[in-house]
């Protein structure tokens, strides 16, 4: 993804040295490429080697966030860190989520302080303030959830607290909360939806419509780069956002099933036809979770109550603060994004029809 695709202007300041954790993931890779496109010196930190990043001129460091020495080595000598790496999922052991999302973030902060870093832009999630109930047009005054939907949201909330509380005049931090990042190149959401659509396991949950925020990848990248530039520039604008969280999204909530069907249409697949009641879906998800645990399977269960509630509950947020303080403006509507996604799928089908939309992302956020 180049500068033209992201739509972010060339930097007016001298090039900086930046580290992107989770550079092998969808968002992290897009941020790394956008930084490189505008002339910055970019390092990527991920668990595996990514030849496509090396070909782009991005220096790579392999390691795990739980290894403080590996993190410190990657961060040595850079000015700013974009911390996008995280363990994501609806299932798994709490210890694994804690190790990556909390202890790993603490290692990033420690490396920043030790290396005299100037700024840290942390990719958080709206899940830090959500529970089982609907949350509509909420802003940053919303408290952290007292009852989280799972290990992911719990540990991401604690990670965000660590980042924001570490802010000082010399080391500035900000946390961005983009929901449902999507678009061409997605290696997390799209493969799962496509796979389940192809095997016929997708069901539309009956009941009142639920609305959610979405964030096109270009807008998510732009938000991170703009926030990072403000922190590095210093002055009153940097002080205003320092140590604060911000919701960033398309700014207009969408009906969840319209969005999912739009993704399927872009991929050349039919819309979701089968339906299921909420209670039935929750019971089926409970059995799926228990079976997954008893069988000691890796990864996420086939269904989870967290996913069911996400699909059946409205959650969307006010992005006025990000607009005012950061200067963030979403530029890609759902309709425009779907057109771009369809064109990308068609290009993938022409180039590699056997692999289109199926690659999993080891560094996903």
Give an account of the 3D structure.
With 365 residues, this protein is of the alpha/beta class. The chain has a domain of 244 residues: 3-Layer(aba) Sandwich (Rossmann fold). 44% of the residues lie in helices and 15% in strands. It has a 7-stranded parallel β-sheet with strand order 3-2-1-4-5-7-12, with helices on both faces. It has a two-stranded parallel sheet with strand order 6-15. Strands 8-11 form a two-stranded parallel ribbon. Strand 4, helix 5 and strand 5 form a beta-alpha-beta unit. Helix 11 packs antiparallel against helix 12. The N terminus and C terminus are likely disordered.
What topology does this entry show?
Elements: H1 3-6, E1 17-21, H2 26-37, E2 41-46, H3 51-55, E3 59-62, H4 68-75, E4 80-83, H5 94-114, E5 119-123, E6 135-138, H6 151-165, E7 172-177, E8 181-182, H7 189-198, E9 204-205, E10 211-212, E11 215-216, H8 217-233, H9 235-241, E12 244-247, E13 254-255, H10 256-266, E14 275-276, H11 278-294, H12 305-312, E15 315-317, H13 320-326, H14 334-351
Helix pairs in contact: 2-8, 4-5, 5-6, 8-9, 10-14, 11-12
Structural class: alpha/beta
Helix content: 40-55%
Quote the beta fraction: 5-15%
Please report the first level of CATH classification, the CATH class of the domain at 3-187 and 213-253 and 315-332: Alpha Beta
CATH superfamily of the domain at 3-187 and 213-253 and 315-332: NAD(P)-binding Rossmann-like Domain
């Amino acid at each position: 993804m180049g500068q033209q695709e992201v739509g972010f202007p060339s930097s007016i300041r001298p090039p900086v040295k930046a580290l992107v954790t989770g550079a092998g993931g969808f968002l992290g890779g897009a941020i790394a490429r956008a930084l490189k496109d505008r002339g910055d010196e970019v390092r990527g930190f991920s668990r595996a080697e990514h030849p496509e990043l090396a070909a782009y001129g991005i220096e790579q460091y392999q390691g795990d966030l739980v290894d403080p020495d590996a993190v410190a080595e990657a961060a040595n000598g850079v000015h700013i860190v974009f911390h996008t790496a995280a363990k994501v999922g609806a299932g798994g052991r709490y210890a694994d989520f804690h190790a990556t999302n909390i202890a790993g973030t603490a290692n990033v902060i420690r490396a920043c302080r030790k290396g005299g870093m100037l700024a840290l832009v942390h990719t958080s999630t709206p899940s830090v303030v959500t529970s089982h109930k609907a949350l509509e047009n909420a802003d940053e005054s919303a408290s952290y959830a007292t009852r989280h939907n799972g290990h992911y949201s719990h540990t991401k909330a604690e990670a965000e607290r660590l980042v924001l509380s570490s802010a000082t005049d010399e080391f500035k931090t900000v946390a961005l909360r983009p929901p449902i990042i999507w678009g061409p190149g997605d290696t997390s959401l799209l493969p799962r939806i496509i796979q389940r659509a192809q095997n016929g396991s997708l069901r539309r949950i009956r009941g009142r419509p639920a609305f959610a925020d979405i964030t096109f990848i270009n807008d998510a990248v732009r938000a991170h780069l703009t926030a990072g530039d403000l922190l590095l520039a210093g002055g009153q604008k940097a002080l205003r956002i320092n140590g604060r969280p911000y919701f960033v999204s398309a700014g207009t909530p969408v009906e969840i099933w319209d969005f999912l069907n739009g993704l399927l249409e872009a991929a050349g697949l039919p819309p979701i036809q089968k339906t299921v009641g909420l209670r039935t879906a929750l019971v089926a998800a409970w059995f799926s979770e228990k079976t997954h645990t008893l069988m000691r399977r890796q990864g996420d269960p086939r269904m989870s109550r967290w996913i069911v509630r996400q699909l059946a509950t409205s959650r969307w947020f006010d992005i006025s603060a990000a607009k005012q303080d950061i200067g963030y403006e979403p530029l890609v509507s759902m309709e425009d994004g779907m057109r771009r996604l369809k064109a990308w799928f068609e290009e993938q089908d022409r180039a590699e029809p056997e692999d289109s939309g199926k690659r999993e992302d080891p560094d996903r956020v």
